[in-house]
Specification:
115 residues, alpha/beta, Barwin-like endoglucanases, six-stranded mixed β-barrel, 4 helices, globular, Asp_de-COase-like_dom_sf, MoPterin_dinucl-bd_dom, oxidoreductase activity
């Protein structure tokens, strides 16, 4: 089962602290290899908090660990991934001369990762 969502990547405070330790640390990888979604969206695809899910955009696909959030924290229909290699694989290369690709409101599909 798949569910259409909008991806809104960004930085997290934990990611910033982990970056000081290095991008090859477990802390940094955990911050950038997690997708946060509303618990309702996760349940709709038959997954639970901590399951691996596939996030696919028109530009690429990545497998991430899902973290369920209550609707008050993250409304249904949105997915959050911290900036890093996985989120970059979901963005296109067009920067409009800014050096930063479009990264907000990217249509994505969320589905269980192959089991």
């Amino acid at each position: 089962m798949r569910r259409a969502l909008l991806l809104v990547p960004g930085r997290t405070s934990r990611q910033g602290v982990a970056a000081n330790l290095g991008k090859d640390t477990a802390e940094y990888r955990e911050a950038t290899e997690t997708v946060e979604v509303c618990a309702e969206d996760l349940e709709a695809i038959g997954c639970r908090d901590g399951d691996q899910v596939r996030v696919t955009s028109a530009h690429g696909s990545v497998v991430l660990v899902a973290r369920a959030r209550p609707p008050a924290d993250l409304p249904p229909g949105l997915a959050f991934v911290a900036y890093g290699t996985p989120s970059s694989r979901l963005m296109g290369g067009e920067t409009h001369g800014t050096g930063m690709p479009d990264s907000k409101g990217i249509p994505v599909w969320l589905e269980p990762a192959a089991r």
